[in-house]
Structure formats: C-alpha cells, structure tokens
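Input protein
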Amino acid sequence: MKPFRVLFIALAFAGLAVPIQAKDMVVKEPPESLSKYYPPQSKQPKWIQQMHKMSTHFGGVFVNLKEKDFENVDKHANKLVEEYKKTSEMVPEWEDYFDVKAAEEFAAAAKTHDIAKAGKASGGLGRTCGKCHAENEVSVWAKFHWPSFHKIKVTDPISEKEIEFDEYMGSISSSFKGVTVNFSEGQYGRAAKALKIFKSRFMELKSTCSKCHAMQDVKRFYVGSDADTAFAGMSRELNADKPNPGKFWKNIGLLGKTGCKHCHLVHRTNSFIQEMWEKPE
C-alpha cells in the first residue's frame, strides 16, 4: 500500500534511507523528564543540541569517507558512539528506542574506511532514529519549540480589558459575524458599525504578533497591505449609496485568505496540540 506520507532519515552519502510511513506517526505529549533539557528548566535546549551533535558526527563519517580523510572518519565514528550512549541515558522513558550495539557496529564499519560497508551498517542505526522521530519528533517540536498562544494576553481595544488570546480571537470572530450577517440582511448601517469594531480588533493583532514576530516584514505578512486594501474596500462599499455585494464579498475573501487563513495554516495545528496538553485532566 502506497504511504500517504513518507519521511526519509537521510543516511548521508551512503545512498540509503529508512522509510517511515504515515501510520507510524504519533502525536503524544513528551515525557516530563525531557523538560529539564529545554527552557525554562535549562538555559539551553540541550536535547536538540544533542540531536545536532549526533547528526554532525554521523554526517561527518560520510563526508570524510568521500574525501578519504580517514583520520577524521575515525574521530567522528568514535564521537558518534559517545554521544549516542549519552543521549540514550537522558530520557529514561525513551531508552528502548536506542540500540548502542547498532551504533558500535556502524562505527566499526566506518573505521574499515569502506563507504559501502559503512552505508550498509548505517541501516540498523538509522532505524532506531527513525522510530523515535516518527513517534516523538512532532510532539517535541510542538511542545518545546513552538511558542504557546495560550500564555498570551491581549488588551481588547474595544473593552480596554486584558483577556486571554483565545477569548480575544473569539471576540474577533464575533465582530466579523456582525459585519457579514448585517450585510447579508441589507443592514448596511449596522454592518458599517460592526466593521469599525472588527477592524480595530483585527489590526490590534499587529502588536500581538510582535510578541514573537519582531521583524516588521513578518508582522505585516498577516496584517499587512492586503488587510488595509480589504478594509478600505469594505468601508467604501458600506458608505456607498448602493453597496456592490460582489466587491464587498471579494474583499471579505481577500482578508480571509491572506490574513486569517495564512495565520491559521501556520499556527493553528500546533495550537490545537498544545491546548490538549495544557487542559487540566
């Protein structure tokens, strides 16, 4: 059966890969013991740094085999085993993912300086990495590398009260419905009033986005020129003697596709995952 998605753990220059199918992917909350290797418990993200160390030494073996720098092949092979053993002891709940013997066998093959033997021996080691990544990588990134919206506070420009981000998004949604429902009913005066509230709340997201997106260009990606154009177009139609429904709904679509949808595509999946983990049992 052809997999819907295949992840490949690239085995450097050996020309091999370990396929991980969609059915192998799991999203579950990482063990609490992993937290001590990430902020705020740790100043540095030690776990991902450990991953980079192993990846560098694994890649270093093949880089140097290809360049026939056998002294550095041996150094990287030895360091890989050292870091692999260290990593295997960091999270007790994950110790079964590791196969130190497979790492040692790979290192021994690498030190024969035969790239074909090293490539063949890398398969066993690659499978241990692939299984752990399939079952944990998405969850680790969602929990430790993705900022949580659920910790953000927003000052509502309408009520002037500080509220939770989720509640604020609900307020934006309600304001939006006030615009679209009233326009659909031909209540253009009410729609115009609702639009002012909706625009005020929507554009406030520029400062909210600044909590993570410090660069102006990034902030304006979601709440930028397209949003300005859409709001101006909607306002123009609502103030016209005879609003043009086609133009009005076109601007609604512009705002939805370039603002709401773009942001949701990037952020919402991780937010859903985090929300489930942060809810009290």
Remarks:
- The radius of gyration is 26 Å.
- Confidence is low (pLDDT under 50) at residues 1-17.
